[in-house]
């Protein structure tokens, strides 16, 4: 049984989930009923490699469906992972609890209205068109493993909505911050936001997020969304300072011992 608060926010959750899947497409996406199984071998993102139940009332044959999905993950050399959101059937959550599935990191999905900007004010920062250069910068800043380069490039190139690849650089120092904005109708997602560790706390993160939102607004977006780990206190402070508020949370579940 869903509580009233959860029931009332489900339409927003459904829309943001659908937009999020389009903004960050998996290499393989297959449905088992309303359960979406996403796989992207070669990329470590759990969001790209997860079982996503999308109807809180679709909890039939949970054990069988979990086993089928888990087999696909193991065949791909991956750990079976359920992404538990407000759309996850309560019965499935109880089943995962009863069978010892581990709860991993919690993520907060946040939204904010994108304010209009004075017509006389210019864009300021123009997004890149060079995906390879953006990927190299992201990997250098975030310390991503070299073997993930091809998969990250493929994910970005697979995005069908309009993208803004933002890169801040200092002469002689190289890339200092990156952000990916994906504009989809009136919504814009912010992904891959990262600031060089030694340059954090200087306002660079706020500047590159602001540049991304400005571009998205000019493209027609009126509301922005993003996902941030609940334990990332500095990022939460940054986003809250920009007017973002919590929409919902999700977490990942894996079988005990895997």
UniProtKB/TrEMBL annotation:
Q: Which UniProt keywords apply?
A: Acyltransferase, Transferase
Stretch forming the signal peptide: none
Stated EC number for the protein is 2.3.1.-
What is the uppermost EC class here? transferase
Positions of the N-acetyltransferase domain: 126-258
Q: Which Pfam families match?
A: Rv0428c_C
Molecular function GO terms recorded: acyltransferase activity, transferring groups other than amino-acyl groups
Family matches, as PANTHER family: ACETYLTRANSFERASE (PTHR43420), N-ACETYLTRANSFERASE DOMAIN-CONTAINING PROTEIN (PTHR43420:SF12)
Under which name does UniProt file this protein? GNAT family N-acetyltransferase
- From what organism does this protein derive? Rhizobium quercicola
